[in-house]
Amino acid sequence: MRIVIGTALLVGASLAPAQSPRSPAEDFAVLDLDRNGQLDWKEYRNRVSEIFYFADADTDGRIDADEAGTLGEGVAIPAEGLRHAQFLDAHRKAFGDLDRDDDGRLTLAEATGG
User: In CATH, which of 1.10.10, 1.10.287, 1.10.260, 1.10.238 is domain 7-112?
Assistant: First the structure.
């Protein structure tokens, strides 16, 4: 199973990406709850969970193919849907991939690919 979620969902977009007037830096600042200029896994996970529950429109605990459209293009959803734990697991890996210096935190540059 391949799950691809762009970082635009996490940084640079509100829950509904088309509705965000904020810049990536502004969105990053909103997600940076402890205001240390970095996102740790807990802060990142909070955003990922918000996205999951926003996308799970019928609140059945899984994102199905019909709901996947809210996540943007390039999202592969298994036929049985995608549960919250699976969504978190995929994003835990993505977090690790983005964390180029392996310090357990993302800077704005790392989160936006800069």
Answer: 1.10.238
